[in-house]
Design a protein that fits this description.
This protein is of the alpha/beta class. It has four domains: 234 residues, P-loop containing nucleotide triphosphate hydrolases (Rossmann fold, 3-Layer(aba) Sandwich); 57 residues; 85 residues, Arc Repressor Mutant, subunit A (Orthogonal Bundle); 175 residues, no CATH class. The protein contains 26 helices and 15 strands. The protein has a seven-stranded mixed sheet with strand order 4-3-9-5-8-7-6, sandwiched between helices. It has a three-stranded antiparallel sheet with strand order 10-12-11. It starts with a helix and ends with a helix.
Amino acid sequence: MNELDYNKITADVITSLAKDAAKGIFRKLAKKYKDFINKDDIDFGVAFEKYLTESEKHISMAKTILYGQTPRHLYTFFECMGIKNSQNTVDTSDVNNILSIGHKIIITGTGGIGKSMLMRHCFLNTISNTQLIPVLVELRGLNEFLPEDISIERFIYNTLRTFGFNMEEEYFEYSLETGCYLFLFDGYDEVKNLLSPKVAQEIIDFSNKYSENYIVVSSRPLEEFVGWSDFNEYSSMSLTKDQALSLISKLDYDKELKEKFYKELDDELYEKYQSFASNPLLLTIMLMTFEGRISIPDSKTDFYEQAFSALFHRHDARKKGGYKREILSGLSYEDFKKVFSYFCFRSFFKDQYEFTEKTALENIAKAKEKTYTYGDFCNTDFLDDMVKAVCVLVHEGLNYRFSHRSFQEYFAAVYTTQLSDDDQKKFVTSWLKSNSSRLTTDYLDILRDLQPERFVKNVLYDPLNELYRLYKENGCSNDWILQYVYSGMAIRKKENEYYSYISIQDSYYHTLIIAMLRYSHYPFKEDYEFSKDEINKIAKKLCKKYRLNRPIDFEELKEDGMYEEAKKCINWALKRFDSLFEEIRKFDLNVFGKKRTFESMLDQL
């Protein structure tokens, strides 16, 4: 189906959907509210039709790293990935499959997996295949507010108004009671840490107040979702080989190069580099770097470095004569990378994922001051280069954003590696202590991969040694360490199976523990290797005493005489501690211990 045909069909569907939704609202509310006498279903129909028409035009077109500043229709580069939980796999090509899960859904996924594009697909598919009015709400827009000024209901209404919804707010509030909407809250992980508790509570309260509507929240994985007890959490699946090949076939790219890449992807590249080829963003970058016939690196950090080099040096294959985009700032690759690294570092730690021109130029000025002291360049030229020449920023309307947050995270970590050990240790530790309860990025994993030994030395060594010392002082008690880091547990039921979750008390230590286990390649997938019959039996007993999904404090379990039995349900947490302390005991044998041999120093220098 070509783009023209798609838009024509959608225009027909929009008119019908708007009229039907308006009639349904009017029928349900006219008897309840007397002031509806002053309204007519035609007014709602006109408002919905204008909103759907304008929003569909905007949401169906997107800019990507491959096409730079040229927006393309979503279905010319999007491949539907499935979503899953421990029990079910859901085909997302039809939004009704997602809605059948329930009225409250969280979809999580790692960077580059395509969550935002999936939300756009859900919006468009809702228009075509349901009787619901879809509303896509980009939550990062709330970052401009103070916590006390945040109202998710008002933010939704203003989003509708942006796309021409010409209806008084009081009537919009009435319509919320009818359950005629699908609200797609995109990018919860992009909400600033300071604001996230208020935003979370607003979404939860909104979902309870207007429970007949459907709500889907997208985010990177977060521990806090355990507390969203009424929401069903699903995770995005990676691209299968067939989906990866289908995605490549859709892309508008140099025909000869694309055909060669497609063949090699089919023959061997997908199997050899599945972790990259199954991720839509990384697969697209593979295609872009394939143009230079560069070998594909094994590590993700090397992959991003190579991708950035390809973006900086690439030729525009669609222009004759191998036209190369001009770097207006005049910077070499290495100098551009230095300035861009600090730009990412500063914006990342200021929770800036979207910029006005003013804030972007402020960050560039600071980056130039910090990293480029032996010359000068025009700040606006550098901003133009990031958008048009290197395509790491996208310019939409009045604002700028990263073509993908993964580049911001990677280069923030790159700049961090340039800090001295003392500065790095103090800075990262301070950040972790203030933000570890809500780490939503890959920054920490990237930093570890870029400098594994310094990561242990500067981030893990001192605090985990201190935790181990306290553990030994308390008799190496598993009960003590469990209750020092965690506060309790919860039981959830999916289908006919029960699952245990743990409530974090000390998020700083929890983050460090997970980081250490990842560093040592701990097999997290084996966490749940225990008897399902046993956990189901204990869980049923706990559910008779405590409400399902409710966090249960360890102290409460002790008072009720159920602590020892309940602890069997979270045996996986104790297994993690055993592995952690085994790794910590090795610290004194490596180069970070107090006793260092000449050979160990030579290896590090």
